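User: Fold both of these, please.

Assistant: Here is the first one.
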Amino acid sequence: MASFYNQATLSYNGNTTTSNITTGELLEVLSATKTALRNNYTSNENVTYIISIINSGSTAFTGLTVTDNLGAVGTGETARYPLTFVPDSVRYYVNGTLQAAPAIEAGPPLLISNVNIPAGGNATLIYQATVNQFAPLDTSGSITNTATIAGTGITNDIQVSETITTADTALLTISKSLSPTTVTENGQITYTFIIQNLGNTAAVTADNVTITDTFNPILNPIAVSFNGNTWNATTNYTYNDLTGAFATIPGQITVPAATYTQDPATGAWTVNPGVSTLTVTGTV
C-alpha cells in the first residue's frame, strides 16, 4: 500500500490560492520474491535463481521487464558484476505452465522483457548465473543480487534481492609427478604429490584427508616426507611392499587455506592456493 497526495491551485486576477490536500491509498496488487536455490557459493559454479511474481488484482499486467543487476558492486564504468548469466537458462512459467522464452539481453545487467502476469495469477522466472572472477571468495565474501520489475501499470518499480555467501570450506586438488621418468632396474624414483587448497578454509586433522596409491612397479624400500619433514611407517602412513599399496593415515595431511588478491585496476580476484607436498622415494 502506498499513499498519494494531491493539491489544486486556483488563480484569478493575479491572485492565487490553494485547496486542501487530499490523501489517498494506492493498493499495490503486484508482489514478488527472489530466491537462490543455495545459500553458499564457490568460484565458477552456477547459482539458480527463482523470481516469483503474483498478481492479486483483477487486471493483467503485460509487457513487463525484469532487470537483474547480477550482483553489481559500484556504478557506471567502475561497476563490477560477480555473476555471469548462463545463456539459454531462462525458464518462464505462467500459472505453472511453461511458456516460450521471453526476450533476453544477457548484459550485464541481465534484461528479461515481455513478461506477462494474468489477473489473479502468477509468473515464475528461473535462470542461472555463474560465479565469476569478480566474486569475493574469502570467509566474509557475499553476493547480493537484485532484480527490478517495471512496466505499464506498476506505480513503483518492485525490487527483490537475494544474498548468498561464500562456502567456508577447503577445496582440494591433487597432482602427481614422477622423477626421473626413465630409470634402470634397481634404480630410484620419486613420486611427488602436490595437494592444493583453493578454498578459504584450511584442511585440518579433523578433515581426515588421505592419499592412497598402488605403486607399479613395486618400490622397496621407500622413504616418505611431507612438506620436507620425514614421515614414519605406521605413524604417518602404511605400505605393503608385496603389493605396492600405499596409504597415508587419516588426518596426517593438512593443507593451508588459499589467499585471495584483488587487482585494483580490474577488480578481478586471483586465487593463491594453499599448498602441501608429499614425496615418496623408492627403489624399483
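And the second sequence with its predicted structure:
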Amino acid sequence: MNICVLVTGGSGFIGTWVLRELLNCGAQTVVIDNQKMPERLERVLGDRSRDVAWSDASLFNCDELQEVIERHHVTHLIHLAALLTPACQQDPWLGCQVNVLGSTAVFEAARRSGRIHAVSYASSYAVYGPESGGESAALNRPPSFYGAFKQAVDLIAEQYWRHFGIASVAIRPHVVYGPEREFGLTAGPSLACRAAARGETYSIGYTGRVGYDYVADVARAFVQAALKCPPGATVADLPGEQATTAEFLRVIETLKPESVGTISISGPEIPANIPPHPKYITELFRDWQTTSLLDGVRQTIEFYREK
C-alpha cells in the first residue's frame, strides 16, 4: 500500500520532526499549516524538505480538507495544529475555534473521505490536574483552557470511533524539548540548550517538576500511532523523564561545563499534570524505547553546535 500522510501543523516544532520521521519511513507527506517556516524545515530535513507537498486548505473548512485528502490520495492523518496554553488563556474563544472546531473539522473530513485508515493527534498532559491518587483523583481536572480543549477533542475522537468507525490514537506528551523548540513557556529548557551551545546567557522562566519528552520520541509516537493504529479511540501517555527545572539545568551544565553560571531559573511553578490512571504508550507498543534526558539534551546541544 502506498502511504500518504496529511500532517496539520507540519511547520511547527513537533510537526517538522514528524515529517522527518515520515520521510525516514518512506511515506509521502502533505502539510496544512498557515504559518510556513521553510528555514526550520530545511534545518531539520535538509534537501528532503523539497519532498514535502503543501496545501493552503483551511483547518475550518471540511470541504477543503476533504479535497486535499482525495487529491493527494491521503491514507493517514496526523493532526498537530493547535494554539498553545498562553494563547488559549489570552483568547479562549479563538483557542476553542482552532483547537476544538479545527480538530472536529479534521475528523469530519476523514469521515467524509472514506479513505482514511487512522488518525493520530496531539492531546496533552494538560488534560490532567495536579491530583494523583485517593479521593483527590476524582477531582483531577485540566487547570487551563488549553487542557480543557484537549480533553474535549479526546471525547470527540471517541464519538467518531463509536459512530463512524474512525480509529485514532491521542498522543499525550508532557513537556516536549529538543532542537527548534522556540515558543511557549516550556520552551525554556530547549532555548537554554541552544544558549549553552552558542555560549550565550539565558533564563528559564519557570520552576517545578514535570516529565520531559525528547522531540524525536514524540515524532516517532505520532507516526507509529498513525501507521499502526489499533481499532478504537486510544489514548497513549508518553512516559517522559521526571525532572525539576534545576535538574534539567544540571544536565546541561554536565554536558557543557563552560555554561555554568550563564543560565538562570526564575518564574512560577508550573502544574505537575499528574495522570491518575496512566495509559502509557508501552501498552500500545511493547518495544517502546525512550531517549534519556541526558541523551536528549546532548543531541539538542550538538544540533545547535552544528547550525
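The first helix runs from residue 13 to 24.
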